[in-house]
Amino acid sequence: MDELIEDKTVGTIVMNVALCDFKALPIDENENGWHGKRLKTSEGDLTITLTPTDKIISKIRKARPDIFLVGFKTTTNETSNDQFLIALKMMKSSKCNLVLANDTVTRNNMIITPEETIYGETVLRYSVIEELCEMIEMRQSLTYHRGEFIVGKDIPFENAPENFKEVMGFLLDNGGYIENNGNGFTPGHFCYRSDVFESNDFISSQRLVNHNDVRENGMTYVTTAGMCKSFTYLGSKKASVGARSQALLLSENPEYDFIVHTHNPLKKDSLIPITPQKPFQCGSIECGVNTLNHLGDFNDRNIKAVFLEKHGINMLFKKTTKSEDVIEFLKNNIELGVKIR
Predict the structure, then answer these.
(1) Domain layout of the chain by residue ranges
(2) Which phi and psi angles does 157 have, rounded to 5°?
(3) Mean pLDDT, the chain, as a whole number?
(4) Rg for the chain (alpha carbons), in Å?
């Protein structure tokens, strides 16, 4: 693995190797390794201590964030939801782009994505492997523009325009951002631009936080340059991964000022257009372009919106848009209090 990480021609690693999670001490401390002294039954009972080994998969994207990494997680007789949560925790800790989870008792298989979504859930092993290969092919060559992070002061949520705060308050108080992944973080993102800052700069939600605490924690300042190809984040945390899409959407829609993205399902009678998310990882340039190209224009309310299938709504509105119109639009179109899985 060290050699693969050093090899700049390596673009994708499918890490399906089964490795020992523990080493047995004192046996594994023997300096001769596999050729150490043989154990003797004549010496009677032996006490060993099992200690966790370092996770090889965790160092791959830490050293090479450009590598597309596919991991595997095995569970034993877990429910579908617990299987998902266990695999998601492994995905987040190792920064995998995809994880295939399989259960040795239920025989259930599923593909987990960074968007906290499940694809290909089935007991048919060949079927899920085939779908995994399709998703690797679709996602492995996506484009990411990485940002520079400067530690600084957060922007207080109270500084945001009033109608943005009112809409966000409604979402925060009614299940727009749900934490049920076991890590304390909520998926989704939101942002606004303000007259106080440069025209191409905006204030974004933060990465790896519970968005329901935004009133206390604040938001991150984002500045962009070079046709949204260069990002600088200023705050106590990086901006949400979705800041790349936010920058593109704001740049291409200069008359709009706010974006909210939640992971709530779409109501059956909604008129919001739907576009597939499966080929795109959230945070990629292609994901932003897909969102931009499929926005529905609801001119009567000064709102634009699209629903990313198995991912959630992206909605833009203006400083002149009445907050009550946006709230009514959200009530009519998404199932608040429910998280897509």
Answers:
(1) 2-139, 155-333
(2) -60, -30
(3) 91
(4) 23
